[in-house]
Amino acid sequence: MARKASTRPSIHSKTRADVASDVSQRSLTYADAGVDLDTYDQFIDTVDSVLKRTHGPRVIQNPGGFAGLFRLDYNEKLFKRNYKDPVLVACTDGVGTKVSLASKARIFDGLGIDLVAMSVNDLIVQGAEPLIFLDYIAVEKVDKRVLGTLLKSVAEGCRIAGCALIGGETAEMPGVYRSGELDMAGFAVGVVELRRAMNPLRVLPGDVVLGLASSGVHSNGYSLVRKVVDHAGLELDRVYPELEGPKGEDKGKTLAQVLLTPTRIYADSIVRTMRQYRVKQVVSGMAHITGGGLADNLVRALSDKVDAKIDAGSWPTLPVFRFLQKHGNIAEAEMRRVFNMGIGYCVIVKPTFAGAVAERLAKCGEKVYTIGKIVKGTGKVSVV
What we know:
alpha+beta; six-stranded mixed β-sheet; Phosphoribosyl-aminoimidazole Synthetase, Chain A, domain 2
């Protein structure tokens, strides 16, 4: 049986005044304002299983709660065995304008890892063990596929970092964000034994600076990255042979895939290595290399009594940085000021233990380079 045509006049046959009159005659809803609570609730219903994948015995289940619960000491007494004078460490960060590039390329499966990395990599610089993580995602309109991908990515980042994803917030904000736009922020909490917390005064002349390889651009400098892409007319979905590494890394990947490579999370490697030295304080300082490059971040680990001398030729520069430099005609000094240039994390080690620490980090899966040393000075970093 054929469908009957509607006997009601099409909205297209009405005047704007008629439509406005129709709207004014009925009760306004949240959906009229651009927020679909049914779609939002359906998405929220899928969140619980993703969070639980990151939960260990310290997480206290709190269905329907307004906040997550995390036990500092649980029945196995692990916390008491590890900490006598525990200090909580907290930090927050976002992914920056990398989200704009991801939205344009429609590639979202690494952004959650970026989000976790930006906070936990800062947290472990203090010598802390990551415990819990929360996320905040703001969108113009709930897209269950995109949000589901982002949330799974956040959970994967927490799994890699060894922390529990115990909650978060998804905000639907039409009128603030345009169609397809989104923003993300993350919040991490960890713990460190007070006497083992990092202190710049422990960094002394003779200490060795180890550099851990980055996975790419990470999550800093994307305003300049996007400017280069637009200025040079680069195609995000094109494969550029220049981006391939010497051992075939990134072979066959599009420009978008290379630029959206997730930030490397160093938490597991650093925590495992630090646990090997519970008595001796062989690591005197650390730095997460983010905005400002190596020099502006490593200096934060130094007192005003020492300098760090870094050999810029002691590690390979990733192809993506030379690619961006060439197509953007960017000066070398500007490149080193904005990007990590291949080193995502620094560990300052007592000289006697430098080889052993480097070996342990390598066994944890890191590419480790001896990139410099500490000398007497006034709290400066020089990259030669």
